[in-house]
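Our platform keeps sequence and structure together, in a single record for each protein. Such a record has a labelled line for the sequence and another for the backbone structure tokens. The tokens are whole numbers drawn from a learned vocabulary of local backbone shapes. The remainder of this section carries one protein's record, kept here as part of the documentation:
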Amino acid sequence: MNVKPLSDRVLILPNPAEEKTAGGLFIPDTAKEKPLAGKVIAVGPGTSEIKMEVKEGDQVLYGKYAGQEIQVDGTDYIIMKQQDILAII
């Protein structure tokens, strides 16, 4: 992949949405929740004021409405500022 985030932005591959409930019921596509966790794929260089704390390969939690969804080579990603990431897991 040739996407390199700028400034303090991070490219994230969201974890897949749950297919089944704990009770074994299948969830239709229209009722699936947006995943709130994912894997960091690429990290920008940061700025003079903002030091990048996440690195490639980290699993992170982010807010429900954080970032912008993009599609690269048929795969959906989210690009967001580092400040929108809530935690590294």
Summary: Residues 23 and 32 are 15 Å apart (CA to CA). The first strand starts at residue 9 and ends at 14.
